[in-house]
Amino acid sequence: MTATMTDTPPPAAPKADTAGSRSGRSVGQILMIIAGALLLVAAVRMISGSDQLTSEGQVSAALGLAVPIGLAGLAGLWSERSGVVNIGLEGMMILGTFGAGWIGWQSNPWLGLLCGIGFGVLGGLVHAVATVTFGVDHIVSGVAVNLLALGTTQYLAKIFFSDGDAANAGGNPKQSPPVDSLPNIDVPGLSDGLKSLENHHWFLISDLAGILGGLVTDLSVVTLFAILLFVASWWLLWRTPFGLRLRSCGENPIAAESLGVNVYRYKYAAVAISGGLAGLGGAFLALVTSHTYLEGQTGGRGYIGLAAMIFGNWRPGGLAMGAGLFGYSDALQLRNGGETVHALLLLLVVLLAVLGGWKLYRKAHWQGGISLMVGAGVLVWYLVTDEVPSDFVGATPYVVTLLVLSLSAQRLRMPKADGMRYRKGQGK
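Now predict its structure.
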């Protein structure tokens, strides 16, 4: 993603998305990394005695918090793969929360969910008209969408929720009346069995049971739908002619046009889908998380979703991992956060030590030395304290966002024409 928009034509020839350029790691290497991470977390749990690290409740809360972040990131992925930077995700999520709360209260939550998606699509189309048709700077248009969405929903909330039946049902100028719940799903038998294993607090076995239990217990149907959307997005964008054409618009729209691709149409479609996904993320907050529209309930998740997208290198798999990480760090605030974050300091020490050793091995002495020094400081902090202050716990998601982006910045590769202005017939 870039904030610099010029009329400079994109690169002359896009590179093919071959297997070698898709990922630097094989499936086996990824599984080894996951296994190593599980072993490390299990060891930290045993040493620190913080059973909340891998508890069913912690993982379930993390999943619920990761869904809106992941949907916002997936929305950004669709838009930016077509070459349109979408800073307006936060505003589209705000529109989704209002639409879901407004229609969900008056009818049923399913219609509220559809209305939330529709309001997000409307915000996406506004962004598409400004950037694709009129060539407005993408960052300026995105910020305008955020401001417009915030002001519009505040105004409409005062009109629809502050008097009449809405006020009698519990509404006020800053929130809608309560909305009925969408159904949740448990896996019969499996949830109870995993909970029993978790309660034994065995090394690794109980950790796996807690993680799996959190993934199969009290799942919202919207969560399952979001998982399907990630799989469908990967298949559509990387396994179909439609996805190839759309991604070519983000890599080199001039070359795509020369091959007969209607670049405007694909950009419009991508940004509209982006708005719908962001609206779905906002609807999740209104219908699943709080069962009501609340002013300011998005809490910057649109921006964190963008950070998760960048962490995932503009790919659904990495994005899902980033959203899970941010959701987990956010969930720490809800479940005895001070002690759990304190245990994570030990995990941070190990990661910094490994990073420092790797940098020294690669002859990056300054970076390696700084990593080891910071790790030593965090270790001292862990040894001399028993709990992390609540103020720091509240800032944990944002600290994690900064750390993740700073550590992953060197391996990123955004679409080459991302954010660049395009005009039909530019290559003639």
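The longest helix spans residues 263-289.
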